[in-house]
Structures are given as C-alpha cells and as structure tokens.
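2024-03-11 09:14:02 INFO worker-7 job=invfold-0412 stage=load source=structure_tokens
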C-alpha cells in the first residue's frame, strides 16, 4: 500500500485543557513533556509548557497522520526552530494510556514511570534520544517498532500485554483508533528539565496498513413494543462487541459532539448519553481491563404514531475521531454524512408498558458543528507522551553523562 501523509488541524481547547488538568499532578515526574501534550495551537502554553510543531513527518507538518505504515517502516522526521542543542526524545505508544482509570495524574515518582513505560515501546532502537544541532535543527529516520514491544528492558519495566500497535479490533471498536509517535524537546538538563523549558516538537498518528476499522455500534429498545406517549429505554445490544466510538474520550453529547435520535425519520427529544471509554489499570500487575463506551437513556414515543405501526428508531453520533483516519462512519443519510449510526424497530402498541426511565430528565439534542477530528490525536498523544515522558528525564541524564565522557576524551 502506498504511504500517504498529511497534516491535520489542531484540536479543540476543551480537549487540551482536560489533558492539562489530568497531567498537572505528575508534571514534576514527567518533567519536560508532562504538560507539553496539553496544547491547543502552535506557540500556545499551559502552565508554561509550549507546543511548537517544529517537526514534519514524511514531509507532512505536525500534527500529522501517516497511512500505509507497518512494522519496520521508516518515518523521515525533520525539525527546525528548536533550541540550540536541545535534548530530544521520540517513541511510539499504544493509545490505552489516554483512558487510564485512575488517570496517570494520580501516580507519582517511580510509579508514574512504571505505568507510563508499560504502554510504550521503550526499547532501542525505537526509543530515540538525541540532541538538536547548534542551529536548532534535527533530522532522523524513526522506525515503526518491529515488532512493537511495550515496556523497557533498560528500565526493567514489563510491558502491558494489552498495549499493542496497531490496536486490536476490540480497542478500535471502543474508540482507541490508532497508535502515535511523538518528538519531545527540552532545553533543560536531566536535573532541571521542566514545563517551562520543554515542549512538544511534533507528533503523528500511525495508520498501519492492517489497522482494524471500527465496526458499527448497536441499538436495543426496551420495550420494543410501546404505546404512544410512553417511555422506551435505549442501550447497546447485550453481548455487543462494537460500540459508540465517535468520541470515546468524553461523555456524549457534549458541546462539540451530538447524539441525534430519529423516530420514523423525525428528530425526537432524548436524554441519550454515551459514557467515555475507560482502562482500569492495576499498577501491581502493569495491565488492566478496557471498558468500552456505554449507551444509555430513553425517549418518549411520539403521540402522532398509531397502534400497529412499525417504525425505525435510529441513533446518530457525530464522528469526532475516525473521519481523519479514513473511518467515515456508516451513515447513508445525507442529512448526517459521516455519522455513526444504528437502528432498531419499534412497534407501536395500544397498551402502555410500565418502564422506569433510564438516565436523567430528557433534553433536546441538536446537531452542532463537530470539533476537528484532530482533537483525538491529543488524547492518543497524551498517552504517548506520558509514557515516554516519565523516562525522558532519566534518559536525558544518560545522554548528558555520555556527552560529558566524550568531552573528556576529546583531544
């Protein structure tokens, strides 16, 4: 498959600020990169950390999306405008870290290091440590891990067996769509690196040739026969293996991602919600359990419907994640292009069935302008940079030691 690369737009501030808040507690441990993932625009800062997008990947400016990659593929990285002699680190990570529960911000010290490294390939030659030139440039050919092996033999941290690249079909169906690579820079040393002298130089999502595509979600009505004016609960189909993956970072609907419910082709009021994905990570085992997004809520059968009618109930979710990855959703409705959708049949009965409404009081759901799909890249990269950021301070110390020894033996 031909390799394709392209730049993507920067994310919504809402996503970035959420990531920043989650990282604050581990900023001292993660040093140069803990807050650098939380940027919203080139040159923007959160708590002093700066994202500069100095790097391009296969000729596509950061943040980028690379398609057609595979184990062993080369990624040509070219950076400029870096601090002279800046320390640089780059690696690849599974997206699981982005949905940790408890979040990585709850860890500190060596526990943060272990939790983060367990999700990234921290092994040579895939974890790269280098320095920028005196003119602030850096070029390198990164390798896609072959095979990807989470953890680090150097730090004696076992990898999480669930951390794989490309992601599994189950992970993709839960909204964890792609792995990522990031380049971090710090003008500080191993002992004084901090958010104020560090930044994210560049990042890219990795679209493997064999990356699974997310499968359509499901919709179940309870009861499936109900009288007009009465409540019907909605949920995922029991035993389903594919979910509402359109915005797995946040609860949906939100200010940027809508849920639209149609009954017999007409929008109706609903309190439908989709919970975010969550990875229940256990530090002692260095692994966890992925809980996919979950649909819940209810609606009231329109009073315009008559007993005996069979009508289609369809739920649409805006695709905030997959559109830029080539996952364009399964909607064929021209009103909702690129949306993710599932349908079920409702039979209008003559006798109301007693139902305890699921969720909160219903409110109108109106389609809004979708946030750039690139907002998802920061969720993935947040996991990546937390994973390798915890090791960055330690590795920069190793590099500084090597440079010092080299200087001593230089004639």
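2024-03-11 09:14:09 INFO worker-7 stage=emit residues=411
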């Amino acid at each position: 498959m031909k390799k394709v690369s392209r730049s993507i737009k920067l994310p919504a501030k809402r996503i970035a600020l959420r990531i920043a808040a989650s990282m604050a507690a581990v900023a001292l441990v993660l040093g140069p990169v803990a807050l650098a993932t939380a940027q919203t625009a080139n040159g923007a800062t959160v708590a002093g950390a700066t994202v500069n997008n100095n790097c391009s990947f296969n000729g596509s400016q950061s943040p980028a999306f690379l398609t057609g990659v595979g184990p062993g593929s080369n990624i040509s990285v070219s950076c400029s405008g870096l601090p002279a002699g800046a320390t640089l680190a780059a690696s690849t990570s599974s997206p699981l870290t982005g949905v940790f529960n408890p979040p990585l911000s709850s860890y500190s010290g060596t526990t943060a290091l272990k939790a983060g490294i367990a999700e990234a390939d921290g092994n040579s030659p895939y974890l790269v440590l280098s320095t920028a030139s005196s003119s602030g440039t850096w070029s390198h050919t990164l390798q896609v891990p072959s095979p990807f092996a989470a953890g680090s033999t150097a730090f004696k941290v076992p990898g999480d067996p669930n951390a794989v690249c490309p992601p599994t079909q189950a992970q993709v169906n839960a909204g964890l769509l792609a792995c990522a690579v990031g380049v971090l820079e710090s003008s500080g040393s191993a002992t004084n690196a901090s958010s104020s002298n560090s930044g994210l130089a560049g990042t890219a999502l990795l679209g493997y040739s064999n990356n699974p595509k997310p499968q359509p979600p499901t919709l179940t009505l309870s009861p499936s026969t109900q009288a007009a004016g009465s409540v019907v609960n909605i949920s995922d189909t029991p035993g389903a293996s594919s979910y509402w993956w359109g915005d797995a970072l946040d609860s949906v609907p939100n200010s940027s991602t809508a849920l639209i419910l149609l009954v017999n082709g007409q929008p109706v009021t609903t309190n439908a919600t989709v919970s975010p994905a969550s990875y229940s990570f256990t530090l002692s085992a260095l692994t966890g359990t992925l809980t996919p997004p979950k649909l819940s809520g209810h609606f009231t059968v329109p009073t315009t419907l008559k007993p005996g009618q069979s009508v289609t109930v369809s739920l649409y979710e805006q695709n905030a994640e997959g559109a830029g990855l080539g996952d364009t959703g399964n909607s064929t409705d021209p009103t909702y292009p690129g949306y993710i959708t599932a349908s079920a049949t409702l039979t209008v009965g003559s006798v109301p069935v007693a139902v305890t409404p699921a969720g909160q009081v219903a409110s109108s759901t109106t389609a809004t302008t979708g946030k750039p799909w690139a907002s998802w890249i920061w969720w993935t990269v947040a996991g990546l940079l937390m994973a390798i950021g915890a090791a960055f301070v330690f590795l920069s110390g190793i590099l500084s030691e090597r440079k010092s020894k080299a200087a001593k033996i230089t004639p």
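2024-03-11 09:14:09 INFO worker-7 stage=report msg="Residues 11 and 372 are 6 Å apart (CA to CA)."
2024-03-11 09:14:10 INFO worker-7 job finished
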